[in-house]
Amino acid sequence: MSDSCHVWLPDITATAGGIQRYSRFLLEALLDVWPEQRYEVFLKNDQRHPTGLGGVRLHATGRLPRRLRSPGFAAQIASRALVDRPRLVIVGHLNFAVVSDWLDRYFGVPSWIVTYGIEAWGVERPALRRALARASCVVSISRYTAQRLILEQGLDPERLAILPCTFDPDLFQPRERSPRLLASLGLLPEQPILLTVARLAGRDRYKGYDLVFSALPGILAEIPDVHYVLVGEGDDRARIERRVRELGIERHVTLAGFVPDDELADYYNLCSLFAMPSKREGFGIVYLEAMACGKPSIAGNRDGARDALADGELGVLVDPDDASAFGAAAVEVLSGRHPNRVVYDSGELRRQVVERFGPASFRRRLEAILDSHGLRERA
User: Fold this and answer.
1) What parts of the chain have a pLDDT lower than 70?
2) Which of 70, 90, 186, 378 is the most buried (most CB within 10 A)?
3) pTM to 2 decimal places
């Protein structure tokens, strides 16, 4: 075995989804807490090498035609691992674990598999089940995903590690509402605003924006000037537009479209309440970003969002199938009557979310996992 660590990731620059952000944070934390390793990082979908990762050898296969990308990536990671025989392979997506399982079974190359949410729930493919069973460690971003792996795959809890999502506290922090953004959206400075940030893809309707639409007429009956801003783009947008028209709430809804990461903080700081009552969320980095901006959050009570909201200590959990319950909770928060007073204390809310989920906490948890496997050199 060499002193190298191979890291296989979907991408960290090609898209701006939660897995991509988590992957970037994981890679940066590895370089910080386990610097004695030589890193070979393989990026399936990126066409260019990301900056700010000095000392890392990067391999990107995103320039390959889409039909050739998966086999090309598999061939690359397998061949490089056979030549290098790394000390550890960190598999950044379960779909790559077929290759890591083959390397483990026939060549003794150990691996960790990082699991997020729906890709790891209800897994039936034999090759992936076998890979999960053989991995040295299965890293989960939430208790919910870890518990499902234990129940569905029969994994030993001792081989599971939980490494929750983190975020950039320098980018996401409280500030005044942007007059420019208010004007561009046609909103008033004191207007109560609901916000959701999510991909508007048909497969991602579980994020809960339909529930918000269903609840909005009832919320408007209590708070007539409330406005709902939905940030995101995707193939579900046309259906969403029809749904908004059918409900007659066009004047109270803005579909903001895609917003770059460096502009998201302005949207979080615009809102009075961040709402994503999801029911199949692996964790939900967006909750952390909103709370780091000092904003109350509502999430569903059936998935990994429970971890992000610390079982309701940092926000409000509701039944994600109950529009009335969501609407009542939203009115309660917006009216200043919710019993969890931390949601109204932006400074304390930010302090707690940074303490629990900031980069320093992420690094400490990663250090503990590495140490539990005897991987880091001790001073």
Assistant:
1) 14-16, 51-52, 378-379
2) 90
3) 0.94
